[in-house]
Amino acid sequence: MKLDQLEKDMLAGRQGPGKQRCMEILVKFGEAMGAEKMVPLFSAHTMPKEPLGLLAELTEGVDEPGVFTTLHPTMSAFCLRNWREMGIPEEFAQKELPIHRQRQEVYERAGFYQTYTCLPMLAGNLARAGDCVSWIGTGLQLMTNSVLGARTNRDGTVINLASAIVGRTPYYGLLKDENRKAQVLVELKDMDVGAMGPAELGAIGYWVGFKAQSLNVAFNNVPELSFDQLRYLLPPLSVSGSVPLCHVVGLTPEAPNLEAALGGASPEMVLTVGPDQLAEARAMYASATPEADLAVFGCSHCTISEIKLMAHYLNGRRLAPGKRLWVGTGYQTSELARQMGYAQTIEKAGGVFASACVATIPEAPLPGESKVVSTNSFKAAHYITHLSKGRVKAWVDEMPAVLESVLEPEGRA
Amino acid sequence: MTLKGRIINQGEVTAEALVLSEPFSFIGDFDPHTGCLNLHGPDSGEVEVGGKVLVIPTGKGGTIAPWIAYEAAQRGKAPAAILCQHPEPITCEAAITMDIPMLVSFDKEICKCLRTGQKVTISGDQVITEGD
What we know:
The structure holds two protein chains of two kinds.
Chain A: H1 5-11, H2 17-32, E1 38-40, E2 43-46, H3 52-58, E3 69-71, H4 83-86, H5 90-110, E4 133-135, H6 138-148, H7 157-166, E5 168-170, E6 184-188, H8 198-212, E7 217-220, H9 227-233, E8 246-248, H10 258-262, E9 269-273, H11 275-284, E10 294-297, H12 304-314, E11 324-328, H13 331-340, H14 342-349, E12 351-354, E13 372-375, H15 378-387, E14 393-396, H16 399-404
Parallel strand pairs in A: 2-3, 2-4, 6-7, 6-9, 7-8, 10-11, 10-13, 11-12, 13-14
Antiparallel strand pairs in A: 1-5
Helix pairs in contact in A: 1-2, 2-7, 8-9, 8-11, 12-14
Chain B: E1 2-4, E2 6-9, E3 13-19, E4 30-31, E5 36-37, E6 53-58, H1 65-74, E7 81-86, H2 89-98, E8 102-104, H3 110-113, E9 119-123, E10 126-129
Parallel strand pairs in B: 3-6, 6-7, 7-8
Antiparallel strand pairs in B: 1-10, 2-8, 3-9, 4-5, 9-10
């Protein structure tokens, strides 16, 4: 691999032992991937669940990361502020808290921004089309490549952290033009996609992910969709499959038209998604009962618009006894919600904000009494079901049904 | 018999092979506390991966897999080496993180040439078995 002077200095240890170890890992990995050089990053976004030994090793002597770096939500739904109100078991918290405090010492010393959100583009880390980044989280990696048009590989947690610390990453894979064309074409037909909410959009993404597996996808015939709609449509492609990039023709930066999305080539696979496919996917997480013990919103993290809708719905309502409502969103957004009065309405109803991964990845420390989870997110339903190894059932529906599943019936409150 | 592959992470080791027929992930298929396999289907059973040469058709798994692998290595439960016919980035990243030898893309189908329990030596870009 060809290295520039700064990269050579880091590899030789002239920038300290942490950066040296990171460069050793990145050079080995880059050579394994056939990369000819490193590329400077616009920014990084890493996962705050590092094994402490590895974090210490990679950040030894590091005063600041090599590039602007934000942090993913605290994992396993463990919100540092509100874990108790969420019902996270005390035993889990007492194990995790001291470990996380040690991580925080590193973040403070080294200057990792403790954003704790899976939508860093809404928290000051806005990469633009063509920028190379290393961002963690498979759903976010897909959103970044697709909606922002910024470029990230599906880096694992070690390459991601090492890249953040040195501000460089091997130039290969999705960072290169030739690997960004869609291989699977999805034609949507006979559905009013523009009017769809999170549950229906997520069902489409979930269905396509099974078929497309690890290939790049392009959606065709899609009407204008909001950011909120895209962040429910796309992430499930990386849950049932491992799709790294999904162009939406006419909407996303690299797909002004179908020809551009396909890079002038013919697709390897063409899928048609209509009402039958939508129904097939919805049936995978259909509700057996209209009630649930725990309602989960915020996978991906709620935007202020979604929180506003929720607050309006909850105005004057209360959770039924023993029921829970988690609202996953970054601290930045819940602060704004408080400024607007939405947070107070949601909390008065019994809801709790979590600047954490409410899909509970990777440990699922759900409250013991929560046996049925309702959510508007296919990704959350998938992971909560799988990670709890069947102890918890989950169903997916739109916001009103999910809220009603944990609310005191209207009139009785 | 000698097989030739491409080096992902260099190292010399002699150990027993553990050959799997399905793609392997450090998340889900592997318990980092015990170093044992956690599989259903033909490869299932209380089978130790720690200290063995893990032979796989390909890898798979989410972004957090390298941390799982690192934790296993810290406990002394890492495989001795990984031999993989069709490499994908996450398993390469895991091997580099554990700093164990890993070779890929062999001139012959590695999972068919080796069998579980066989003693193999990894030297440079070569995998050498005794006898046959």
